[in-house]
Specification:
Length: 118
């Protein structure tokens, strides 16, 4: 793997050794899945559910995004998703605005980084 890709992934919190274990050491498969993340609709669903004040739908979208980020090793995004997912799981929309902003920033960083791999 190219050094600049490794550094970019590390900046997103990716532990490459651990993450690649989930992909049986197959870097091509990992990058294929990373590229699929670019088309994942859960972030959009999350934003729509929050706008609609629907904590149940917000939970579903946040939980799915948390899982995808964990599987891809996007630990910075995963850590922010853990916090907000629990708020929605409780049926609340009273999330921490700082956490929400950090989550949006980490999502955007992940998307920009992955897009840059193309």
């Amino acid at each position: 793997m190219k050094k600049e890709r490794i550094e970019s992934l590390k900046s997103l919190g990716v532990d490459l050794d651990e993450t690649l274990e989930r992909f049986v050491g197959n870097e091509d498969l990992y990058f294929k899945c990373l590229n699929k993340f670019l088309n994942d609709k859960n972030y959009g669903h999350l934003m729509e559910a929050i706008k609609d004040e629907d904590s149940s739908e917000a939970f579903e979208a946040a939980h799915a995004l948390k899982g995808v980020s964990a599987n891809l090793g996007l630990d910075n995004l995963y850590e922010e998703m853990k916090v907000i997912t629990e708020v929605f799981r409780a049926g609340s929309l009273d999330y921490d605005p700082d956490n929400f902003e950090k989550m949006k920033q980490e999502y955007k960083r992940a998307m920009n980084t992955i897009e840059g791999f193309k």
